[in-house]
Amino acid sequence: MRTRVKICCIASIEEARLAIDAGADAIGFVGARLPGPRTIPDARIAEIAAAVPPPIATFLLTTEQTAEAISAQIRRTYTTAVQILQHLDPAQSARLAEIEPHVRRVQVIHVEGPAALDLIAVYTPHVHAFLLDSGRPNEATPEFGGTGRRHDWVVSADFVRASRLPVFLAGGLSAANAAEAIRQVQPFGLDLCSGVRTEGRLDPDKLADFMRAVRGAAND
Exposure pattern of 168-186 as b/e (b: 16+ CB <10 Å)? Predict the structure, then answer.
């Protein structure tokens, strides 16, 4: 099965086009409430998303924690998918499925140990896919992704085998380890931000190298 690629932290129409031209299947926008260099306003997300041609998926990354707040942000940004960065209350996850049934819903699981597998049953009834990342949402200064840090891929591989839903892998990915990630974890897709950037900007050479590594892994 072909491994999909999602390029995250897109901040302009130019970056979106660069990612799409390189072969990305999806692009992501950081719309989190927390301040940070990769966060962009909802209005800019909507502008970029409107310029993305089908069938490329557009992901809103949100830290909102209620179904109504997430729904409101989706409707401001006009994205086709939402990536929920916090471990959402299951009741809110169920409610979001009711009010936004046509938006693809992806629950992020921050892999801090084998207990991550316990969340499969919690969220599977309400979402379309999972994304495994290396955030630390419970720290004094929470991290929700974009860390450039790899987590335990043994746990990730176990998660993929246990889940009946597609699973994206994120955290510390680059051209240097993309093939290893695909072989070891066998995810539905790879998701990365910092691994294809230089000084915060999307780097065409790193992007091309990463896509080449993904394609090469498929031919191994």
Answer: bbbbbbbbeebbebbeebe
